[in-house]
Specification:
GO molecular function, one term: DNA binding
Low-confidence stretches: none
Mean pLDDT: 94
CATH class: Mainly Alpha
Largest sheet: 2 strands, antiparallel
CATH topology: Arc Repressor Mutant, subunit A
Number of strands: 2
InterPro entries: HTH_MarR-typ, Metal_resp_HTH_trans_reg, WH-like_DNA-bd_sf, WH_DNA-bd_sf
Organism: Pontibacterium sinense
Protein name: MarR family transcriptional regulator
Distance between the termini: 40 Å
Keywords: DNA-binding, Transcription, Transcription regulation
C-alpha cells in the first residue's frame, strides 16, 4: 500500500516562519561577530548587558521578560557577568528577597564600546531598504508580533 500524498505541500524555502528564522539567525550572527570576538561575550551575555545599559536596576526576572529570553540562559549569563565583574548584584530596598542587577563601571565601559558597533551594523543592514521601507518594516513587524501574540 503506497503512501498517500499530503493534502497540501510545504515549500520550506518559501515558508514564512522558516524564512524569518533564517533572517533572524543570519542577522544575529552578524551582530554576534562584534561582541563575541573582542569582548568574549555570548549572545545571552550581550543581551543582559544591553538590557542593563538601557534599563538599569533590573532583576533577573525583569531582564528575562525585557529580552524575551528564558530564565535559565539569563541566569547563566548573569552568573558569568558577575564573575567577570561586569554586573553587580544588590538586594532591593523594597523587597530584600529580590536581587537588583546593574552594570559595573567595567560593564558600562564595554556597553559603551559595543553600542556604536552594533548601531553601525544595524545601519548597514537597514541600508538595503529606503527610509519608507524601513518605516513599513517597523509597522509590519509590529503587526505580525501582535498577531503572533494572539496565539499564546
Amino acid at each position: 500500500m503506497g503512501r498517500r500524498p499530503p493534502a497540501q505541500h510545504l515549500e520550506l524555502p518559501r515558508f514564512f516562519p522558516y524564512k524569518l528564522s533564517i533572517l533572524q539567525s543570519t542577522i544575529s550572527d552578524s551582530i554576534a561577530q562584534l561582541y563575541s570576538g573582542q569582548f568574549n561575550l555570548s549572545q545571552q551575555e550581550w543581551r543582559v548587558i544591553a538590557a542593563l545599559g538601557t534599563q538599569p536596576r533590573m532583576s533577573a526576572k525583569e531582564i528575562a521578560a525585557y529580552t524575551s529570553m528564558d530564565k535559565m540562559p539569563v541566569s547563566r549569563a548573569i552568573s558569568k557577568l558577575v564573575k567577570e565583574e561586569l554586573i553587580s548584584q544588590s538586594p532591593s530596598s523594597e523587597d530584600r528577597r529580590l536581587i537588583i542587577l546593574n552594570l559595573t563601571p567595567k560593564g558600562l565601559e564595554i556597553y559603551e564600546q559595543i553600542v556604536p558597533l552594533v548601531l553601525e551594523r544595524e545601519e548597514f543592514l537597514l541600508s538595503a531598504l529606503s527610509k519608507d521601507e524601513q518605516s513599513q518594516l517597523d509597522t509590519l513587524m509590529e503587526k505580525l508580533l501582535k498577531k503572533a501574540q494572539e496565539l499564546r
